[in-house]
Amino acid sequence: MAGNTFGKNFKVTTWGESHGPAIGVVIDGCPAGLPLCEEDIQPMMDRRHPQPTPVFNPYGVEIEAAPVNKRKEPDKIRILSGVFEGMTTGTPISIMIENTDVKSKDYDDLKDVYRPGHADYTFDMKYGIRDHRGGGRSSGRETAARVAAGAIAVKILDELGIKISSDITYLGFADEDDSAGGTVECVVTGMPAGVGETVFDKLDARLGQAVMSIGAVKAFEVGAGVMASQLTGSMNNDEFIVLDGKITKNTNNAGGILGGMSDGDEIVIKAYFKPTPSISKPQNTVNKNGEEVTITISGRHDDNVVEKAQVVVEAMVAVTLVDALFENMHSRLDKIKEFYR
Ligand SMILES: Cc1cc2nc3c(=O)[nH]c(=O)nc-3n(C[C@H](O)[C@H](O)[C@H](O)COP(=O)(O)O)c2cc1C
């Protein structure tokens, strides 16, 4: 299956299905000499399992703890290669995460039906065969592997003084048997100006691909984003100024990217998530034999994937930036000469 690799210089390949023995990631292009151990990666993995958020009634009284993640995976990672005595060696880093809380029986009744909002129908049309258990390769579980790669990218960015943070700026709410979506805003500080390519591989285009490749993301924005289309040029343009002897801008509608290259300002992007497709409310659909059926999805699902996916957005942004930073290293002869002299 093609399309499992992201990046050119810092190459990330994920593998595995939701209910197989394990999932994992191979990172090729991580430079030698980065201190790295499993404990460096685990905290970011743990953020894919946020603590349940309590639900309050209008009088501020806690009614219940909202179940954020019903599949109880420890997401314990194992580094299989590319690290020796706590240091990356420059060879491919392979990371494995075992699938330990698998209840494939939950999916038996859904084997031949096309769940609305899922990749079941399109997978069958493309391959004619699919691992239906827990969404197989299309499962949100695949994103655990991305987060492992993202944690390494974050460590590299850290060495360069570049920091990534994010916030959930909108979290939808739905009743018991339904689901909701939301929005994650991600901000990068410390990114030097002039990183990114000028045409097809513009930094915003690469970030867009990275973020839109996360399951359930339906829209992506940079800076003022959609709002920019409703502004005038004079309102939208960020004027350049000199502050403390440095060139900067007085506003940041551009979201830190101009002409596909970072402008030295904060990079600001937004990811918009649709409601979780698995809902326990009865839904009409069609099965493999072309018969119309009504289904009720049981099993363990996130009512809202946003809290779990927030760290995935950060991970994909980190991977994209490291890839772009590495690519940028051969853009100027004077810098190449400086490096080899
Ligand atoms: C971290 C994460 C967790 C997810 N968990 C679930 C889930 O529990 N149930 C579900 O139906 N979809 C879940 N999804 C979304 C589906 O994977 C996704 O919507 C589906 O494969 C269809 O792909 P599309 O929405 O990109 O078109 C999750 C996505 C992410 C990023």
Structural class: alpha+beta
The H-level CATH homologous superfamily, spelled out, is: Chorismate synthase AroC
- Main sheet properties: 5 strands, antiparallel
Query: Helix segment count?
Result: 7
CATH topology: Chorismate synthase, AroC fold
Low-confidence stretches: none
How many angstroms does the end-to-end distance come to?
43 Å
Q: What do the pLDDT scores average to?
A: 93
CATH class: Alpha Beta
Helix content: 10-25%
Describe the structure.
The protein has helices spanning 38-46, 120-127, 142-159, 203-212, 233-236, 306-328, 333-340; strands at residues 5-6, 11-16, 22-28, 54-56, 62-65, 77-81, 83-84, 87-88, 93-98, 163-171, 182-189, 217-222, 240-243, 246-249, 257-258, 261-262, 267-273, 283-286, 292-295. With 341 residues, it is of the alpha+beta class. The chain has a single domain, classed as Chorismate synthase, AroC fold (4-Layer Sandwich). The protein has a 5-stranded antiparallel beta sheet, covered by helices on one side. Helix 1 (38-46) packs across helix 3, helix 3 (142-159) packs across helix 6 and helix 4 (203-212) runs antiparallel to helix 6 (306-328). 36% of the residues are buried. Bound molecules: flavin mononucleotide. Flavin mononucleotide is lined by residues 118-119, 135, 138-140, 143, 214-216, 274, 276-278, 301-302, 305, 308-309, 312.
